[in-house]
């Protein structure tokens, strides 16, 4: 993810620096965006349109048509209906309206023009012919979402997920609707499915922890803490000195501090219920946070130190036997 | 509730740039500035962009603690929230989480405002709508009377927000706005946007 972000940034900078239109660069950018699935519609509709409009003969024929489809979708995303219509006419001339991909684009054009019912009709005709066309099903769901009819969107997504249980992007979508409606319990369930599908992606553990924390309550804070810790096992700031990118898992470090702090503040929690390992974890997180701040944003040192001070937990009241072992680490 | 709201031009640009950077998702952020005690006039001097995907408790709390600290050091106040909705069809109905945060801010601050990003038009030159707390719980609706006036006392060169935003978009500068979420993914970024210039 991060390497892709860096790659995108370099494309972005090159594009804005070059004075003349560098069609090879634009083609490569569009290729990269297709692969990485970033949604950068503005830049694609701006540069990509010029590419397929004026440099179409230079492109590889097969790729040219793919590019056309990509640019149309991005134009629709930016409400540039006329551009999209012009390009779509070219596709219709080549492939006729019998092609499912062209039909779907026509449906999306309707959506953009606000002709929602027409769009739904187009998708339903496709589905009658090809009942397993998942893209058209997803378009229908997104229509309901865009209209703010969340219940219907959830209902359709559930039907969809009964067929395509392994589509974790659909689970993500369902989770995002549940989060939007503040039904965190359902969102947690979705993220469990997502983690089963992609067990080594640290990001989903972070999100799971954040949702669990949002639910509140001492048990959920500890649950969040566990997931944060696991995400750090998958993406640890300690791995970063060898890489030339700053650590990306700050949410987990902050999350650990907040979970332990909130656990101590909550009515069923308390500092004395913390395990020693959890106290150590807190110190580790605080130290990491300070180190990262010192290294990358020294100007925010005051703010971050104040944050650490505010969220610090009181000393655990220990039995005299433990004092000797505990004292030095807590002092630090 | 406040009687009137004015906003610095740079702050206004930042709000719109944050919205333009993430056209496909809902965004939110905090309004920073001061309140005139006499006539409850709110002056938005700066904004701090917060999130562009989900707004969930842990990082929001972290952001609030740090921003409070920043405000204390610099003699500013948190005076409200701005948001941009994901959907155009119900853009003037803030998301549940935004309403919940606004409720909390409202009960803490009394004088605060919730601004929602909308289309820049002649009858809405700032592209911001003031939302008022409605009687029932979690209700926030558009205030028909109040408009956000653009304060140009700070810098008085170019005040055409539409043209300014067009320039920014052509140069791709909107992508260099950093919100708190970006910072947590890359700690070398500055969520205060100190070096950002339009």
Question: Can you describe this structure?
Answer:
Chain A: Residues 102-215 form the EMC2 TPR-like domain. Chain A: Its main location: endoplasmic reticulum. Chain A: It is found in: Endoplasmic reticulum membrane. Chain A: It is a peripheral membrane protein. Helices cover 75% and strands 0% of the residues of chain A. With 332 residues, chain A is mostly helical. Chain A has a domain at 200-332. In chain A, α15 runs antiparallel to α16 (301-310). Chain A starts with a helix and ends with a helix. In chain A, 34% of the residues are buried. The model of chain A is unreliable at 320-332 (pLDDT under 50). With 198 residues, chain B is of the alpha/beta class. Chain B has one domain: 3-Layer(aba) Sandwich (Cytidine Deaminase, domain 2). Chain B is built from five helices and eight strands, in the order βαββαβαββββαα. Chain B has helices at residues 9-21, 57-74, 96-109, 161-171, 180-185, and strands at residues 4-8, 27-36, 41-51, 77-84, 113-117, 128-133, 140-142, 148-151. Chain B has an eight-stranded mixed sheet. In chain B, α1 crosses α4 (161-171). Chain B is globular. Classes of the chains: A mainly alpha (332), B alpha/beta (198). Chains A and B meet through α1, α3, α10, α12 and α14 of A and α2, α3 and α5 of B.
Which terms would index this structure?
heterodimer, A: 332 residues, mainly alpha, 17 helices, globular, disordered C terminus, B: 198 residues, alpha/beta, Cytidine Deaminase, domain 2, TPR-like_helical_dom_sf (chain A), endoplasmic reticulum (chain A), EMC2-like (chain A), TPR repeat (chain A)
Summing up helix and strand content along with how strands pair, one would put the structural category of chain B as alpha/beta
Under CATH, the topology of chain B can be stated as: Cytidine Deaminase, domain 2
Order of helices and strands of chain B: EHEEHEHEEEEHH
End-to-end Cα distance of chain A, whole Å, is 36 Å
Order of helices and strands of chain A: HHHHHHHHHHHHHHHHH
**Strand runs of chain A, count:** 0
User: What proportion of the residues of chain A is helical, as a percent range?
Assistant: over 70%
Tell me the strand percentage band of chain A.
under 5%
Mean pLDDT of chain B: 86
Spans where pLDDT lies below 50 across 5 or more residues of chain A: 320-332
Count the DSSP helices of chain B.
Answer: 5
Most strands sheet of chain B = 8 strands, mixed
Percent strand of chain B: 25-35%
Spans where pLDDT lies below 50 across 5 or more residues of chain B: none
Alpha-carbon Rg of chain A, integer = 25 Å
* Count of distinct strands of chain B: 8
Sheet/helix structural class of chain A: mainly alpha
CATH class of chain B: Alpha Beta
- Main β-sheet of chain A, in a few words? none
Family (chain B): Belongs to the EMC8/EMC9 family.
Organism (chain B): Polysphondylium violaceum
InterPro entries (chain B): EMC8/9 (IPR005366), MPN (IPR037518)
Protein name (chain B): MPN domain-containing protein
């Amino acid at each position: 993810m991060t390497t892709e972000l860096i790659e995108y940034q370099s494309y972005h900078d090159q594009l804005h620096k070059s004075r003349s239109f560098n069609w090879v660069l634009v083609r490569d950018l569009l290729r990269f965006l297709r692969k990485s699935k970033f949604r950068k519609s503005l830049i694609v509709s701006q540069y990509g349109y010029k590419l397929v409009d004026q440099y179409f003969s230079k492109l590889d024929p097969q790729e040219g048509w793919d590019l056309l489809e990509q640019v149309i979708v991005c134009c629709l995303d930016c409400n540039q209906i006329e551009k999209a219509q012009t390009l779509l006419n070219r596709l219709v001339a080549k492939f006729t309206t019998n092609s499912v991909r062209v039909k779907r684009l026509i449906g999306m054009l309707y959506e953009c023009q606000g002709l929602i019912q027409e769009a739904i009709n187009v998708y339903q005709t496709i589905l009658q012919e090809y009942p397993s066309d998942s893209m058209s099903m997803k378009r229908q769901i997104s229509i309901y979402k865009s209209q703010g009819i969340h219940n219907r969107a959830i209902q359709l997504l559930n039907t969809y997920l009964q067929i395509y249980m392994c589509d974790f992007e659909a689970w993500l979508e369902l989770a995002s609707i549940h989060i939007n409606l503040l039904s965190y319990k359902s969102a947690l369930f979705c993220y469990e499915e997502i983690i089963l599908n992609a067990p080594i992606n640290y990001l989903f553990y972070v999100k799971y922890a954040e949702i669990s924390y949002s639910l509140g309550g001492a048990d959920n804070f500890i649950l969040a803490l566990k997931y944060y810790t696991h995400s750090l096992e998958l993406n640890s700031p300690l791995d970063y000195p060898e890489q030339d990118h700053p650590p990306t898992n700050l949410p987990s470090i902050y999350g650990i501090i907040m979970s332990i702090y909130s656990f101590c503040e909550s009515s069923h929690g308390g500092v004395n219920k913390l395990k020693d390992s959890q106290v150590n974890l807190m110190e580790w997180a605080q130290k990491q946070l300070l180190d990262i701040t010192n290294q990358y944003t020294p100007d925010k040192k005051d703010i971050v130190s104040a944050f650490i001070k505010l969220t610090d937990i009181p000393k655990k009241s220990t039995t005299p036997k433990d004092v000797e072992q505990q004292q030095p680490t807590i002092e630090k | 509730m406040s009687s009137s709201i004015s906003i610095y031009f740079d702050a206004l640009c930042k709000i719109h740039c944050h919205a333009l950077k993430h056209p496909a998702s809902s965004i939110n952020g905090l309004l920073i500035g001061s309140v005139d005690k006499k006539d409850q006039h709110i002056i938005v001097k700066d904004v701090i962009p917060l999130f562009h995907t989900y707004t969930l408790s842990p990082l929001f709390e972290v952001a609030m603690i740090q921003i409070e600290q920043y405000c204390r050091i610099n003699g500013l106040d948190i005076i409200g929230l701005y948001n941009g909705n994901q959907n155009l069809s119900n853009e003037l109905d803030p998301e549940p989480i935004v309403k919940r945060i606004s409720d909390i801010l409202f009960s803490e601050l009394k004088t605060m405002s919730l601004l929602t990003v909308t289309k820049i038009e002649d009858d809405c030159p700032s592209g911001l709508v003031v939302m008022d707390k409605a009687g029932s719980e979690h209700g926030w609706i558009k205030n028909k009377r109040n408009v956000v006036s653009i304060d140009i006392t700070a810098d008085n060169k170019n005040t055409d927000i539409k043209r300014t935003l067009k320039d920014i978009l052509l140069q791709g500068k909107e992508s260099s706005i950093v919100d708190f979420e970006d910072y947590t993914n890359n700690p070398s970024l500055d969520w205060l946007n100190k070096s950002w210039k339009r």
